[in-house]
Description:
By secondary structure, the protein is an alpha/beta fold. It is built from ten helices and seven strands.
Amino acid sequence: RGFEPAQILAMSSILQRVIFDADDLRLSDGGLLANYFERWHKANLELFAITSGDPEENAAALRKAGLEQYCEEVLSLSTPTQFASIGSLLYDKLKRDGWVPREQLVIFRSPQALLSIWREDSGGARRCTLGHTVRFPDHIENGLSKQLLDEVDDRVTNCSAKLTTHCFLGAHQGQSFIDFADSAFKCDVDAMPSQDRRRAAQGAARVQLLGRPDLAALAGLSAEAFWPSRDG
């Protein structure tokens, strides 16, 4: 699907950059990724890849897959400057380059990684959330799937100009869902071992589980009552 000119104008005035995990791309799907990357690039979105390793190696892999041309830069958590988390890197970009959190969308699988968007490395809450987020779970084994890319497509046209938004693509009993109210609490729970997840879900307030039928079921509640609506 393509963007209408009005949509492109709205995107360019609100969202400025998309940030994704370079270590989690399935570059054999370069053709699929290129369709979306090219569309976002033409809409004046800046694409940044983040790696925990060598940025040159990742840039070479993106080049081989035909994707480097759409990316501004591969950012590394380890070189030339070491950052303890994605959040630390983005906070540095906020201070040094004026990266406004509501103007960027961060796409990652790891709940531990995305926790740093909400929390400082010390564990305390950040003064502001460092971006919009789209999170996908471990059952999506092969990187950025078409379902996920379609959801990112929707996010880049509908990101709030005032508040950051957070969504999670999940599944429960074979049915996919999108939780439009992802949170630090939910990332915390998803990062836990299975038995700890159950205990955390059972001890949570109902409002903390809204949008997550899988966590509601772990808590012994009716999953149907917690199924997300499109409005979040």
